[in-house]
Write a structure and sequence with these properties.
Elements (H helix, E strand, L loop, with lengths): L6 E5 L2 H14 L6 E6 L9 E3 L3 H9 L3 H8 L2 E3 L1 E5 L7 E5 L12 H10 L11 H7 L19 E5 H14 L3 E4 L2 E6 L6 E6 L4 E3 L2 E4 L12 H4 L38 E3 L4 E3 L9 E2 L15 E4 L1
Parallel strand pairs: 1-2, 1-12, 2-8, 5-16
Antiparallel strand pairs: 3-7, 4-7, 5-6, 9-10, 10-11, 13-14, 15-16
Helix pairs in contact: 1-6
Amino acid sequence: MLEPISSLVIVGGGTAGWMTAAFFAKRFADTPLKITLVESPDTGTIGVGEATVPAMKLFLNDLGINEREFIQATKATFKLGIDFDGWHKPGAAFFHPFAPFGVSIAKVPFHHYWVYERRSGKAGPLDDYSLAAQLARQHKFALAKDDASELACFNYAYHFDAGLFAQYLQGFATIRGVTHVPATISHCQQCPSSGAITALVLADGSLLEGDFFIDCSGFRGLLRRPYAQVTSTGTNGCPVIAPSPCPANIKTSCHPIPAPLLPLRGGNGAFPCNTGTATAMSTPAITCAMKMRSLNLSKTCKAGRWRRHV
């Protein structure tokens, strides 16, 4: 019988590490689970703009974070969609709003009508029929009312300072019991028989033991290095899924992962550990530039327009 996990160790800070710490601290607030985050004090924080998608709003809601407080702490602006330059040919663009285009008519999706009318030259560009797109074109934003009609409904996300976001979540997580260990990891201590990670050896020689390890160290892949012989082929430094060792005394449907191992996109990866396989979290970032606009929460305010070059 497997014993419950009593200690969770997160490797790496930043947005990925502190999002992970905040999530587990909130989810397991009333349990004896011990959560520790270790990050090197020598790794500087890069204060760059972080682009998100509407899932970030759901994440913050799940944590119970007040949106106004979050925006003020991270200097965030609202994001209504993504503008793709060179969408299907040079000079062409497509704006992807976090909202539908038009509404269904007689239970038929709007785009069917738009294509029909567009072919006859009677319909304008597709984003003419999206409130979110039109707001973004005019650099405006207003929260949709709860009783708004289907035409006036739209979703949104944020753009914020990644460094400030990490600091904000660090405060959120540590207040809820997460232990922050500023230290450099020397190497991993592994079980001789299974190869599973049992502890982290820090630069001062001390051990940081855990039952479950989550790698949020990005491309450095600090927990991936012990498995370099398994994951080094053709990954270009990207984290990959690696098999988790199966205890010999436990019957399970665990099967070896067929070669070759394929890298995961976005900085996520699963790595063998003492009692299970941990999947690293990363922020849903989108490489983009933003025209910064002033923010006034007391009334209709301007929002940045997003652009991604593809």
